[in-house]
């Protein structure tokens, strides 16, 4: 089997991108990157502050620059922010520089996972559930169009999701026509 390309995790907030990304990187003995954390580290400020001061447009500009930089590294596992796929340039960077994995989840699961998180600027309003539903309607088609692999995370432990990703991505990396019995054994 050929070595695996960079693995980029996309999906909505609360899908488990950071948790699953860390486990996946450890399993593959690769560097784990979280694009949102990289932006915060570079700015010396958290994302809500960046949103407050620069607006969403300013944050998205920083995000595009960071994705361009991070996707040029090799042998990494990277979790992206939930809105990273909103710009075509970001979707193109991800598709061209690695394998894109959409961690799909339901809005109900997102609500459970994000209900106490105050570090999500888009949810700081009177009806976060409606915000999540509206974002899902807009972003789900973009996640699907960008992804090489779609993996559901609902009601599954992170290790189970990682095992699923490894099996599916390994199949993508197999050379065409290699159907010998030995090529499918671990």
TrEMBL record:
Keywords (alphabetical) are: Amino-acid biosynthesis, Aromatic amino acid biosynthesis, ATP-binding, Cytoplasm, Kinase, Magnesium, Metal-binding, Nucleotide-binding, Transferase
To which species is this protein native? Salinicola lusitanus
Molecular function terms, GO-annotated: shikimate kinase activity
**Which segments of the protein form a coiled coil according to its record?**
none
Function field: Catalyzes the specific phosphorylation of the 3-hydroxyl group of shikimic acid using ATP as a cosubstrate.
Q: What does the UniProt cofactor note say?
A: Binds 1 Mg(2+) ion per subunit.
Cite the annotated pathway.
Answer: Metabolic intermediate biosynthesis; chorismate biosynthesis; chorismate from D-erythrose 4-phosphate and phosphoenolpyruvate: step 5/7
Positions bound to Mg(2+): 18
Gene3D superfamilies per the record?
P-loop containing nucleotide triphosphate hydrolases (3.40.50.300)
Quaternary structure, from the entry: Monomer.
- Name the record gives this protein: Shikimate kinase
Q: Which domain of life is it from?
A: Bacteria
Q: Does the keyword Amino-acid biosynthesis apply?
A: yes
Gene designation: aroK
What is the required cofactor set for this protein? Mg(2+)
Q: Which reaction does it catalyse?
A: shikimate + ATP = 3-phosphoshikimate + ADP + H(+)
Cellular localisation: Cytoplasm
Cite the EC number: 2.7.1.71
For substrate, which residues are the binding ones? 36, 60, 82, 139
What family does the database annotate? Belongs to the shikimate kinase family.
Residues engaged in binding ATP: 14-19, 120, 156
Q: Which residue numbers delimit the AAA+ ATPase domain? A: 3-155
């Amino acid at each position: 089997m050929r070595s695996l390309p960079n693995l980029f995790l996309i999906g909505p907030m609360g899908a488990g991108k950071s948790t699953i990304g860390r486990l996946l990187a450890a399993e593959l003995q690769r560097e784990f990157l979280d694009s949102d954390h990289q932006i915060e580290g570079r700015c010396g400020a958290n994302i809500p502050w960046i949103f407050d001061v620069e607006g969403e447009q300013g944050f998205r500009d920083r995000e595009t620059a960071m994705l361009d930089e991070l996707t040029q590294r090799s042998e990494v596992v990277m979790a992206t922010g939930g809105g990273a796929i909103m710009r075509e340039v970001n979707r193109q960077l991800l598709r061209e520089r690695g394998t894109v994995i959409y961690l799909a989840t339901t809005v109900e699961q997102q609500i459970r996972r994000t209900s106490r998180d105050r570090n999500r600027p888009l949810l700081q309003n009177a009806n976060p559930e409606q915000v999540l539903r509206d974002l899902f309607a807009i972003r789900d088609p973009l996640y699907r169009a960008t992804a090489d692999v779609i993996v559901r995370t609902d009601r599954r432990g992170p290790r189970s999701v990682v095992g699923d990703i490894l099996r599916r991505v390994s199949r993508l990396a197999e050379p065409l026509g290699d159907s010998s019995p030995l090529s499918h054994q671990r």
